[in-house]
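Risk register update: the risk of archive-format incompatibility is retired. Evidence:
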Amino acid sequence: MTIAPPTVDDGPLAVPVGTLDVCGCERRLVVRTRERFALVQDLLREGASLDAICRQLQLDRSTVRRFARATYIDELLVKAVNRSTILGPYRPHLHQRWNEGCRDTAELHREITALGFPGAARPSAATCGTSRRPLPRRHPGPRRGPVASFGGS
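Archived output:
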């Protein structure tokens, strides 16, 4: 049994759960997956081989094969949007508090810990009292030419 893709006549399409970030924009992974699927399918319709598509898009063969075999984009997005994490059960609370304006990660962590979150908070610059400065750059080492690599004169 094959399922036909939704058409415009079926009414407005619902946005699949997990495709949007907290701001309501499509997640980068979803956007990239859509773009790659469209490119692979277009190249296949033009008669390009999988190897040619791999070279042109600079993608691994297994990735191109997966995109080529998929009939609909939803087949690929299922894995991209349904990843579970230990934060999963606490996301509604975090989204609500973020939208309320709470940007204090230590406070958010305390709140979800009270709700049963088992994870530890990673220290950030704000909680450590340090600023985020780049590490000092190391000086480049001596360049090794053909003479140095062969130990010759």
